[in-house]
Amino acid sequence: MLETASENGDSDAAYLLGLLYKQGKHIKMDEDKAEKLLKLASDNLNPEASYSLAAIYSEKKIPDEAAIKQLILFAENSGKVAAKVAAAYVSAGMSPSKAVKLQRMGDYNWNENMADLFIPVQLPDGTIPSQATILSGYATAQRLCNSCHLPGVEKAPRIGNKYQWRNRDIDIAKMSKRIMDGYKKCPPAISAHNNPSLQSVKDSIYFMLWTAFK
Ligand code: HEC
Description:
Largest sheet: none
Order of helices and strands: HHHHHHHHHHHHH
Radius of gyration: 20 Å
Strand content: under 5%
Oligomer: single chain
Number of helices: 13
Number of strands: 0
CATH class of the domain at 107-214: Mainly Alpha
CATH topology of the domain at 107-214: Cytochrome Bc1 Complex, Chain D, domain 2
Bound molecules: heme C
Distance between the termini: 50 Å
Structural class: mainly alpha
Shape: elongated
């Protein structure tokens, strides 16, 4: 049934069938067929298919970075959360194929990649955070902040997005205090479940600013 529908140009059917071929669920796994069907659905502007296709392209020996980036951005603009995360990594300086892989792995190797990516950046307040600060900040942000600041929940300024940070008063002492205590829709970093030190919250703010201004 899916087969007929996808031949008739139904992009949802092509997407679902493509996934089944990719995962080898209920049918024999066939990566070429999966790629063709997902490409068909993606060409018909199906954002889910576009992101799955980006994942297939990212696994190739020589990934087509421009094509992957385009697929991520299209899926991101259509509101796909996974694509938003990958897009944030791309704007933080990561290659599109690496960003998709990392998002799909659930971030486990970010620290390794951060080490590859590190470049010193002067922030608007004149400080140049060290790599150790950025790595420590990433670890805290990953635990307590990224869930909102990567996708931009409730208009939280997004990681890697300079335009959403540039009009804020970049005063780290003031910001750290705000974030410890809670500020508008940014919840207090200290809660019943978390007890981060002021220093680690500071580092996570440095991390966010670093991704935005680099
Ligand atoms: C539940 C979602 C959420 C979480 C979790 C979260 N934030 Fe926020 N954050 C927001 C929102 C929303 C804003 C925008 C507040 C505003 O200006 O209206 C914000 C704003 C900020 C700002 C800008 C504040 C200013 O002074 O302009 C900083 C810095 C920040 N967050 C850091 C953090 C850090 C560090 C963490 C983790 C310890 C964190 N946030 C966790 C939602 C969140």
